[in-house]
Specification:
The complex is a heterodimer. By secondary structure, chain A is α/β, with parallel strands linked by helices. Chain A has ten helices and five strands; from the N terminus they run H-H-E-H-H-E-H-E-H-H-E-H-E-H-H. Chain A has one domain: Thiamin diphosphate (ThDP)-binding fold, Pyr/PP domains (Rossmann fold, 3-Layer(aba) Sandwich), CATH 3.40.50. The two termini of chain A are about 30 Å apart. By secondary structure, chain B is α/β, with parallel strands linked by helices. Helices cover about 35% and strands about 20% of the residues of chain B. Chain B is built from twelve helices and 14 strands. In chain B, strand 10, helix 8 and strand 11 form a beta-alpha-beta unit. The chains are: A alpha/beta, B alpha/beta. Chains A and B meet through helix 4 and helix 5 of A and helix 3 and helix 5 of B. Chain B: Pfam families: Transket_pyr, Transketolase_C.
Chain lengths: ~280, ~325
């Protein structure tokens, strides 16, 4: 486990706050970004990287690592924030986000960034790759796991359902998928674009071990990851995480929901201050 | 209303528009399932080789591999987007997947999945696809007239159009020795055997001059090399001397051999391909010649830019100008 055992190790709440802070700082560098999504998924990423996953920060390609596949490539700002917090990407690179020659482009790509396992951007790719990697790990008799994050909007893509069927067919118990249900995609609320509920019933009927949690409740997320990792049945595992866009920065939580949220130049510092204030309360 | 056209007087009216039809001529020498047998041979020495398909194992000769190595065979179901995404995943874990389906489904349905998860990530996946170009009489749903154009346009992708069983057997180990994504067209079932008589060896990225000729140079790939050789033989009876440069690697093109042969003076250069006239070997060669200042008389034998008819393959190959008789007729007309 990567989780430090020192008495003064950061708590998961502190990790999540650091991920949010890193994401806001990157958003400020570019003046834009999928910042509301980064804020909503920070708690899940904190649990993944600092409670569940095995990795070596100094050796991101370590063969025994758990793999994290970011299917929703536009969440790269969130994953970079976690990779910086994990020590896989140096903190100084935060200032290069989205610039020419940076290793941190706006959309996540495997060929650019240490710790990035796939190229997302075109939605609906990740779970199929995850099936292949999970089959590959089983072939190698590896104990490593595949974690993959995707967004509720990706449930619109037929390829997602091909992979959902396949993972159950091949009994991929080394695959843990997390779907971020923030109910927001490019043209509006996800559930109004192409209805996917009742999601838990659907996924269970497809042969998955499914849990649905408040994705911004750290204790609940830890419990879901623990149950997913220890579950005995030979089934793939899905965590349906309901999240709040902009979580942790009250004025962004309350802003009229937008897929690509507008943050005025003076608001980035206000957002960072709000994040710190929230942490002290 | 589309149809294969009226039957010329004196010719039997052929009836089959079946999905799977042999491209071997009556009495032609053939070899069964060269891809499947070559893959089994390769897999004996390469433990990283796995086979994957989307409900077309039997129709891509991958069933031979499945019988020999059942635990290295992945049946992914009729889900081509999944097939290529999962192939990328297995390659990421160090395996070398040979993933098969029909050329139409790889090039059209799964294009983005191959583009993003295999080519962009430079994964070591070998894609082998049956029914390339016009090798099915079933209609446009199964006629991959544009597959070479689509895969040529994809960065990182090596693209190969083999002629016969002899060549397919050699391509399998050759692409395994090359690290990176490959798209190869596949001839399956009873596959014609032609190039063994030409002392031919496949080399990735290389074109081979199979016969020399003073009047015409045919540059060809795939089954059109077989047709070109037959047409060249027939034309020699009419005192027309035809050379044939076989260029199975469509990308990267053997620019050196093509420029060397096309620059020899006094020859009509004809590019012959089992592919739409748009974006395949013919236009690749034309662009190369223009860029290089080599300007011979130039013609293309290729499928027209239209949705092709259903019908029996011999009927369709005549109609669209890629049968041996039509290759010969067109060349004689151009020389007139």
């Amino acid at each position: 486990m990567a989780t430090p055992t020192l008495a003064n190790a950061p708590t998961l709440a502190q990790r999540a706050r650091s991920i949010r802070r890193n994401a806001l700082l990157m958003g400020e560098v570019q003046g834009q970004g999928y910042i509301a999504q980064a804020l909503d998924i920070a708690d899940v990423l904190a649990v993944a990287y600092f409670h569940a996953m095995r990795f070596r920060a100094e050796d991101p390609a370590w063969e025994g690592r758990d793999r994290f596949l970011l299917s929703n490539g536009h969440y790269a700002i969130a994953l970079y924030a976690a990779l910086i917090e994990a020590g896989i990407v140096p903190e100084a690179e935060l200032q290069t986000y989205g610039f020419d020659e940076s290793r941190l482009p706006m959309s996540g790509m495997a060929s650019y960034t240490p710790g990035m396992e796939m190229s997302g951007g075109s939605l609906g790719l990740g779970l199929g790759i995850a099936v292949g990697m999970a089959l590959g790990l089983k072939r190698k008799k590896s104990a490593a796991r595949i974690f993959t994050l995707f967004s509720d909007g990706e449930l619109d893509e037929g390829s997602k359902w091909e992979a959902i069927m396949s993972a159950a067919h091949h009994k991929l118990d080394n695959l843990i998928a997390i779907v971020d249900v923030n109910n927001q995609q490019a043209d509006g609320p996800s559930k109004q674009m192409l209805g996917f509920e009742p999601l838990v019933d659907k996924l269970e009927a497809f042969g998955w071990f499914v849990q649905r949690v408040d994705g911004n409740d750290l204790d609940a997320v830890v419990g879901a990851f623990d149950a997913a990792m220890s579950h005995a049945e030979p089934k793939p595992r899905m965590i349906v995480a309901d999240t709040l866009m902009g979580k942790g920065v009250p004025f962004l939580e309350q802003r009229e929901k937008n897929h690509f949220i507008r943050v005025e130049p003076h608001e980035w510092q206000l957002a960072l201050s709000a994040l710190n204030a929230g942490d002290q309360s | 209303m589309k149809s294969a056209g009226s039957t010329p007087p004196g010719k039997p009216r052929l009836t089959t528009s079946a999905m799977i039809a042999s491209i071997a001529a009556e009495g032609q020498r053939t070899k069964p399932a060269p891809f499947g047998h070559a893959l089994v041979e390769l897999a004996r020495s390469r433990e990283d080789v796995v086979g994957m398909t989307a409900d077309l194992g039997k129709y891509t000769d991958l069933h031979i591999f499945a019988h020999a190595f059942p635990d290295r065979y992945y049946q992914m179901g009729m889900a081509e987007q999944l097939l290529f995404g999962a192939a990328s995943g297995l390659a990421a874990e160090g395996f070398m997947p040979f993933a098969t389906t029909y050329a139409v489904f790889a090039s059209r349905r799964a294009y983005d999945f191959i583009h993003q998860t295999i080519a962009e990530e430079d994964r070591n996946v070998k894609i082998a696809c049956a029914l390339p170009g016009l090798t099915s009489g079933y209609g446009p749903s199964h006629q991959a007239a544009e597959d070479l154009a689509l895969f040529r346009a994809m960065p990182n992708m090596t693209v190969i159009d083999p002629c016969d069983a002899h060549e397919i057997e050699q391509i399998v180990p050759a692409i395994a020795a090359h690290r990176g994504p490959v798209y190869m067209r596949l001839l399956r079932g009873q596959v014609p055997l032609v190039l063994d008589e030409y002392n031919y060896r496949f080399e990735l990225g290389k074109a081979a001059l199979l016969r020399d000729g003073a009047d015409v140079l045919i540059i060809s790939s795939g089954i059109m090399t077989m047709r070109a050789l037959e047409a060249a033989q027939a034309l020699s009876d009419d005192r027309v001397s035809v050379g044939v440069l076989h260029a199975p690697t469509i990308k990267p093109l053997d620019t050196e051999a093509i420029l060397r042969e096309a620059a020899k003076p006094g020859r009509l250069v004809v590019v012959a391909e089992n592919h739409t006239v748009i974006g395949g070997l013919g236009e690749a060669v034309a662009a190369l010649l223009m860029r290089s200042g080599v300007h011979p008389a130039f013609r293309q034998i290729a499928l027209p830019d239209e949705f092709l008819a259903a019908g029996a393959l011999p009927t369709l190959h005549d109609r669209y100008g890629i049968s041996t008789a039509e290759v010969k007729r067109q060349i004689k007309e151009w020389l007139r």
